[in-house]
Write a structure and sequence with these properties.
With about 325 residues, this protein is an all-alpha fold. Among the domains are: about 80 residues, no CATH class; about 90 residues, no CATH class. Helices cover about 35% and strands about 0% of the residues. The longest helix is centred in the N-terminal third of the chain and has 25 residues. The chain is globular and about 50 Å long. It starts with a helix and ends in an 11-residue tail after the last helix. The relative contact order is 0.07.
């Protein structure tokens, strides 16, 4: 009796094993369910943002590179053809939020344009800034008027045509003058810059002439020499900075300056005839020097004491 039952059980087990083998041969095993195909993962996603993005550099998306995702799936060696999972088309949060991570190598193609970039790609700039094609940092800040003016003089007005000792002096004196506009011949930076730009196209001695007109004296083209001199005296040589070596008023300065004989030479920061002579250019030379150092000493000369004074009779 037991032998028959054992034989029956053995026959049943053999049948089951044979059926399983046949199913394997015929390829009709029960298919495994891919968890990614569950309804919870079949919800439509939004391309413009989310928390699950793609960090792959070689993955190809039909909609372009993901624009969001801080917890990316690494598809760095997967494509659709390899059977790998496609890149994320968005996330769960939605919305066009900027990328917090972006692609690792910036080579993800599609509608994005982050080729070569180190930050996020797609149509929304990443928080780190795009640095690939079409990206890059911001433009340099534009130069102010005095920087432009002193650049011109640095390039063109050199040697005997130099109007300032150095760039620092140029900038300091320039910033004591009103900016003005180029269409007026007044004691302004814009007027002097106009002549500095002409020096770029001058030939021979024309360059020296334009440089003088662009300098602190302006050769009388941007207001008179005395106007330029007295505007600096009122700023540089004050009672606080130079003690007794200052003018009581701008009118007093103008009256004194306009009574001086002409210089007979063009203004130059390197000409020794400018730094010691009974003329307005000597006084202008020393007030520009006082703006840089030793105001008490140079303001004394700017008043015509020791230097810049009439010869003894």
């Amino acid at each position: 009796m037991r032998s028959r039952k054992f034989q029956a059980l053995l026959a049943t087990a053999s049948s089951v094993a044979l059926l399983a083998a046949c199913n394997q041969i015929l390829g009709i095993d029960e298919a495994a369910v891919d968890a990614r195909l569950s309804p919870s993962n079949h919800e439509p996603s939004v391309l413009s943002g989310g928390s699950a993005g793609s960090a792959g550099s070689e993955s190809v998306s039909t909609s372009g590179t993901d624009m969001g995702g801080s917890a990316g799936i690494d598809h760095s060696h997967m494509t659709h053809e390899d059977g790998g999972a496609p890149p994320s088309e968005g996330g769960t949060d939605g919305g066009p939020g900027p990328s917090q991570a972006g692609t690792q190598n910036g080579n993800g193609n599609g509608n994005g344009n982050g080729k070569g970039g180190s930050a996020g790609t797609g149509h929304t700039p990443s928080e780190a800034g795009a640095s690939g094609e079409g990206g890059g940092g911001g433009d340099d800040e534009p130069k102010d008027l005095c920087e432009t003016y002193c650049d011109e003089l640095d390039d063109l007005c050199i040697g005997v045509a130099a109007q300032y000792r150095d760039r620092d002096q140029c900038l300091k004196i320039c910033r004591m003058l009103p900016e003005g506009t180029s269409d007026e011949d007044a004691n302004t930076v814009s007027c002097r810059l106009k002549y500095a730009e002409k020096a770029r196209y001058g030939l021979g001695t024309e360059v020296n002439v334009y440089c003088t007109q662009a300098g602190p004296s302006s050769d009388g083209r941007c207001g008179s020499v005395c106007e330029g001199f007295c505007s600096l005296m009122g700023t540089v040589c004050t009672e606080e900075s130079a003690g007794v070596y200052h003018f009581a008023s701008d009118e007093d300065c103008r009256t004194t300056c306009e009574a001086l004989p002409p210089a007979g030479v063009a203004y130059s920061s390197s000409n020794p005839q400018i730094s010691d002579g009974n003329h307005a250019l000597c006084r202008l030379f020393h007030v520009t020097s006082a703006a840089m150092a030793d105001p008490e000493e140079h303001c004394e000369h700017a008043l015509g004491i020791t230097l810049c004074e009439a010869p003894a009779q």
